[in-house]
């Protein structure tokens, strides 16, 4: 049984995406990045759930995000990613 488990362990995929433990602070960064990504997708013509966008806008307290132009959305996403990376390493 031991060898069977070892073989299964070697073949199974280890899940450690990002290796960042969950915290409310980190979730806030993640929510903001998700909002900016969804809005960018919508501006590019992809189908995006408006309910999901509204929920994220309410959660992140960014109600003015909907009307921003695509260039501003890209800038906001870049800024949010850099803030997330800084918070991740501290």
What is the count of DSSP helices, taking H or I runs of 4+ residues?
4
The multimeric state of the shown protein is single chain
**Uncertain stretches of 5 or more adjacent residues:** none
Structural class: mainly alpha
Strand content: under 5%
Strand count = 0
Task: Give the termini distance in whole angstroms.
Answer: 42 Å
Overall shape: elongated
Mean pLDDT: 90
Sheet of most strands: none
Series of H and E elements: HHHH
Fraction of residues in helix? 55-70%
Please give the domain count: 1
* Rg of Cα set: 18 Å
SSE topology:
Elements: H1 2-11, H2 24-43, H3 50-60, H4 70-88
In brief:
The protein is mostly helical and 90 residues long.
Describe what this molecule looks like in 3D.
With 90 residues, this protein is mostly helical. Helix content is 67%, strand content 0%. It is built from 4 helices and no strands. Helix 2 crosses helix 3 (50-60) and helix 2 (24-43) packs antiparallel against helix 4 (70-88). It is elongated. The chain starts with a helix and ends with a helix. 10% of the residues are buried.
Tags for this model:
single chain; 90 residues; mainly alpha; elongated
């Amino acid at each position: 049984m031991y060898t069977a488990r070892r073989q299964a362990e070697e073949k199974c995929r280890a899940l450690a995406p990002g290796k960042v433990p969950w915290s409310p602070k980190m979730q806030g960064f993640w929510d903001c990045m998700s909002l900016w990504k969804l809005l960018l997708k919508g501006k590019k013509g992809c189908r995006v759930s408006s309910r999901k966008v509204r929920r994220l806008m309410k959660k992140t307290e960014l109600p003015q995000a909907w009307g921003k132009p695509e260039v501003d959305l890209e800038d906001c996403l870049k800024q949010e990613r850099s803030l997330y990376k800084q918070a991740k390493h501290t």
